[in-house]
Amino acid sequence: MGQRTVREFRPDIQGLRAIAVLLVVLYHAHLPFLDGGFVGVDVFFVISGYLITKHILQGLTSSKFRFAEFYSRRVRRILPASLAVLCLSLAAAWLVAPPLEFARIARDAAWTALYIPNMLFAREGTNYLSASEPSLFQHYWSLGIEEQFYLLWPLLIWGIFLVARRNVRVLTWSLAIVAAASFIGSVLLTPVNQPWAFFLLPTRAWELAVGGLVALLPAMSHRSFTPGRRNAFGALGLAVLFGSAFAFDGSLPYPSFWAAVPVLATAVVIALGPYDGVLARLLGNRYAAWVGKISYSVYLVHWPLLVLPQIALSWMVPLPLWLSLLLGALSLPLGWLSYRFIEMPFRFPRSQRRRAVWGPLATAALVAVLVAGVSVMGMRSVASAELNAGEPAPAFTLSTDPVAPALIGSNLSVRLQDHQTQAAIPSGSGCNLPVLSSPIPPACTYGSSDGAPTVALVGDSHAAQWAPAFEAIAATGQITLTAHTKSGCPLHVRGGGSAESVDCAEWKENVLDVLAADPPDFVVIGSSLTSWDQSPEEYELAMRKLLTALPQSSTPVLIQDTPRFPGAPMSCLSQHLTSPAACSLPEGDAFDSAFIRVEDRLSEQFGAYQLDLTSYICADTCPVVQGNVLVFKDAHHLSKTFTSALAPAIATEVAGWTPRA
């Protein structure tokens, strides 16, 4: 890498890097009123697109660009620190993480080592803005996008440059079309599948491309703007950037068109710089320069610092604000150590042979494969482990005074590693619709006794979890059951921070049409109720509209929502095989009483029944396991085995229901 001249160095860009990383760190540390700090990543994307495109264009116009040399520099710049933090994080997790949590960590490490973690998070439907138990390597998603961009962008520029016969204007317009197509794709895909729009390169490439376009456009800043105007517009760009960091929050359907705000603000600041006066002192002072210089390493280390303590406690105890801010501050000196002893030695080795470009590429590939292999081995070791106390627990007995057993028995109804197989949903192919699927309700029916009351079970996964019990009741001839359930899609219209997908809205309309065409005697409604999704007031308003829209001849039944653990109860159990009570949730923390009061009012006004099975799930505490049966499948869903065991209790309640005349 050649020596940079004074004119090539942009202190204002170093200051932008400092702003970007501090926004991200403080956002992840949950600093109040900074709910949009995630826009710092968008700033990084624009900066990367600008610098890389400028470098490629200089090489192409001077006929000195070499692909192998470019990729070798990128490898030396990005991968040593990235892989070092990955390996250290994995080793720390091995020491402190519960076994079940480590299995997930090892899997995520394998994807991260292969530079495709963003694809994993997209496939899993991860909500970056509100994930309750995020991956230890979730912050690597942006590195995955940048690495994939670095792989393809030079090829695209080189190809267009060659075809356009070195015409920079044609290149600029061509890349503008690519950026526009990517932006349109982001806007269209976000309401349909937000995780895919958020994590994948095709819908994020426009942000890096905008930076590239700034590098390709003529130097208008110094020809068309006076220094005063440049400073004024640069300050306005910074104000818009900070404004988005404070005004945005997790309720936005992001990225969509919202990402254009921080992206264009950053592009303006870069395009009009460098600056003088106050703006120069703000972006170019020595403190901003120091933070900007180490920003990459700070970004890498801050997340494991914040996440590992919570992983060690199975996410059951959130970090207090003072501690998360302290850990965020600790990322600065640790970031400097990574910069000084990992980044710099690999970027500028003392005995660098400038023509030896294939060595770093081969080394990076070998290390990536080794780390991925070790991660897979760690994941498999957990999968085959005996996660029980080595002796049987007392057999399960349904009780209104539930308690946790003394140990996790060798006779547990399902291995802890297999807890996800305990999903309680309507049986039959396609009878429970996943989050993104057809909006046509399959209307699966169970039982066919003539004269038996007809029951429709409707709602999201918190309604679907009761299906095994209702199906068992239908099998006895007491009811005829029809299930209309779709994960992530309650029948009422959610407000607050949960934007609904198009197929979810259509599904709701279709279910109401089905109910109107053939009204059941009872409509049993289950929903996930949290203040994250909507306030109790919003829920009450939405439910009043829903209950009014139901057939007049159908009696509504409101199911009391199930407890919601703050973390991962199964991981907690894997760490407390001889003391599962340590993973129980105090009943006072299990429910939001405001929602319960809303349902009390709705039941009184609309003549609805209430189905409350809480006494079988919680006493003073809500145990994760009773006897030899897992009560919960995850943090807020009951297990199929436990729900089925509740069938007699629910049947008794159903026997007391009277259809409307």
UniProtKB/TrEMBL annotation:
It comes from Leucobacter luti. The chain crosses the membrane at residues 12-30, 36-57, 78-97, 148-164, 171-190, 196-219, 231-248, 254-275, 287-307, 319-337, 357-379. The keyword Transmembrane applies. InterPro entries: Acyl_transf_3_dom (IPR002656), Acyltransferase_3 (IPR050879), SGNH (IPR043968). The lineage of its organism: Bacteria, Bacillati, Actinomycetota, Actinomycetes, Micrococcales. It comes from the Bacteria. GO terms for cellular component: membrane. Keywords: Membrane, Transmembrane, Transmembrane helix. GO terms for molecular function: acyltransferase activity, transferring groups other than amino-acyl groups. GO terms for biological process: lipopolysaccharide biosynthetic process. Residues 442-651 form the SGNH domain. Residues 12-339 form the Acyltransferase domain. This is Peptidoglycan/LPS O-acetylase OafA/YrhL.
